[in-house]
Design goal:
single chain, Aminopeptidase, 7 strands, GNAT_dom, acyltransferase activity, transferring groups other than amino-acyl groups, 6 helices
């Protein structure tokens, strides 16, 4: 396979049912598994999450684009290699892709590998609806929810408001966790 080719999983995970996400669906969000044809959008989405960080750099638009594409490819390859049983979900709203939600079920938690929305979809409660659905799923199965969050990520406020706590400083990231109330 050429080094510049990205792939998506197509095994057992793709045959499983999608996780129930009723709050997000009530907000008009739809979910489907990612496909090879989604990779350009996913790269664009990744770039939108790094735009503010790259803005002050004296690079040309082409240099920034090439850097972001390289970073997306590295991240995507890492995710595919290290989270083989994940649910790789594309988030759609108003018949257009607006984000991604990557989840993997572990023995003690549901790990949010990644959650991201395009800038125009942020701040409207859509991410909160998705996270509340993940928390409800975890509560149903008596699991926690874990996520790595960059120190300067504006969504940190949301996670803290939802009851996530910082469990470990991982350098650039905090490992955060939420646990359901004991039954």
């Amino acid at each position: 396979m050429p080094a510049d080719t990205l792939t998506i999983p197509d095994g057992t995970a793709s045959r499983r049912r999608l996780p129930p996400l009723p709050r997000a669906r009530a907000r008009g969000l739809r979910f489907r598994r990612i496909q090879e044809a989604d990779l350009p959008f996913l790269s664009l989405l990744y770039g939108s999450t790094r735009a503010e960080e790259l803005a002050p750099l004296p690079w040309s638009a082409a240099e920034k684009s090439a850097f972001l594409d390289m970073q997306f490819r590295a991240q995507h390859s890492h995710y595919m290699a290290h989270f083989p049983d994940a649910d790789w979900l594309l988030v759609e709203w108003r018949q257009a892709p607006i984000g991604r939600l990557y989840l993997e079920r572990w023995p003690s938690e549901i790990r949010v590998i990644d959650i991201a929305l395009l800038p125009e979809a942020r701040g409207q409660g859509l991410g909160e609806a998705m996270m509340r659905d993940v928390m409800a799923l975890a509560t149903r199965d008596n699991l926690g929810v874990g996520i790595h969050v960059e120190h300067n990520n504006p969504a940190m406020r949301l996670y803290l408001r939802l009851g996530f706590t910082k469990r470990e400083d991982k350098g650039v990231y905090h490992l955060m966790r939420w646990d359901p109330a004991p039954r």
